[in-house]
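ok so I'm stuck.
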Amino acid sequence: LGVSNPIFRALLNFYLGEAMRMQGRLADAIYHYQRALEVEPKSTAALKALAWSYYNIRYYSEAIRTARQLKQLAPNDFQVAIIMSRILNKISMNDKALALLNRSETLASADSVPFLNSVKGDILLSMGEREAAEQVYRKALQDQPLLPGALIGLARKFIEDKDKKNNDTAVIYLERALKIRPNLFEAYYLLGKAYQKTNPTKALEYYKIFSREASYDPSFQQEMAEIRPQLLEARKTTNSNKRSDASARSDTDEQF
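replied:
not stuck anymore, here's the structure
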């Protein structure tokens, strides 16, 4: 009875899509969001989730098409502006992304502005506008001190500065972000980078956590490619040590 009800079917597919997205099964998630939208084509929740899923698998043409549908339905929704600006950033249309965020800021509530500024900081940092990015991140954190995206963005900027004092501050920000949202995989990667020179063993532990959590997420392919040689080398060393220990135990047994 429930499955024959179109509203129930739309909700069922939407929540199945959410479950698949949480597991990193984005192709399955997209399928279920599309089925939900067949019944409820104006569902902004399903369209937002679908746009993010396309974005995360780097299918930017479909992501921007979906975001445009969203913009028609909810032109003043700050989340729609964030989705659209993220996509525009990935296709190197940064001026349009920043213009959209600035325009949205004039319409957004005070509670929404820090989120817009956090995204603006990410885009500025990707453009190499490092000082401008830092100012925007700080503005976001001034209004919302526990905003994970701004904490991670500013930490990333500090790590790239390669200044020890800033590096130490980055670690504090990243640990704070993880306390708020433990599933922020990028924070583990950045903590690995922060400890790369001062504590390689600790860096490797963070890289292992990141690899375990993010290896199936296509949005982290570049980071995974960067750390994979270190992880493979660490695995070889571990296996070699195990063989040495086994050989030593065997020699000891023979003596007795």
